Amino acid sequence: MGALKFRVLLDSEKKQETFRDLLIDENDNFETLYRTILNSFRFEGIEMGSFYISNDDWDKGHEIGLMDMRYSDEDEGLPSVMKEAIIKDFIEVPDQKIILVYDFLRMWIFLIELIERTDQTITKPEILLSIGIAPPEDSRIIQEEGDFDGEDSELYDDEEDYEDGYDEEDLSSYEEFDY
Residue 115 belongs to what H/E stretch? Predict the structure, then answer.
């Protein structure tokens, strides 16, 4: 048995360093890590989130979701579930990188890196270091539909002719019915 020390960096718009160093038992599951991270940044934890096993380029790999999105046990390649996924089973390299996306509307991104493996035995996760003040969880604005500015607004212009392969002739046999 041992413990894993992770550095968790909050990717913020203000570009100020806000990170936490956490120590967690290697046999804990990702849901415990998820709750520990959110608590350490004082986030409520009521929104959905997913971990992504990553590489040195911070590319998203295998997903570990908060909820079970599988329809059967034969659904391979689909996300693992946090409460079933043991952290040590996903550590592939000594400096393993993991991405946590929390609140898919506000898109909070946490960059997580394994910084040390220890032989230490711990009973519950610990916050070892806390640098920077996390912004309020609701400080990111959710972009509403139709709330676009600049070049993006042209994409939603009703007068825009869409290339769907259909023309007026294709619709000539269509009859409207009154219900």
Answer: strand 108-118
| 97 and 112 Cβ atoms separated by less than 8 Å | yes
Question: CA-to-CA distance for 162 and 158, rounded, in angstroms?
Answer: 9
Neighbours of 23 (CB within 10 A): 19
Cα Rg of the chain, angstroms? 22
Domain 3-139 grouped into CATH 3.10.290.30:
yes
What residue ranges do the domains of the chain occupy? 3-139
Strand partners, 127: 22
CA 101 to centroid of chain Cα atoms: 2
Q: Which two tokens stand for residue 81?
A: 């579930």
pLDDT digits (tens, 9 = 90+) for 72-116: 555 456 789 999 999 999 999 999 999 999 999 999 999 999 999
Compute the distance between CA of residue 33 and CA of residue 6 in angstroms, rounded to an integer.
10
Number of residues written out for the chain: 179
Listed in sequence order, the DSSP H helices in 17-176 are: 30-40
pTM metric for this prediction: 0.75
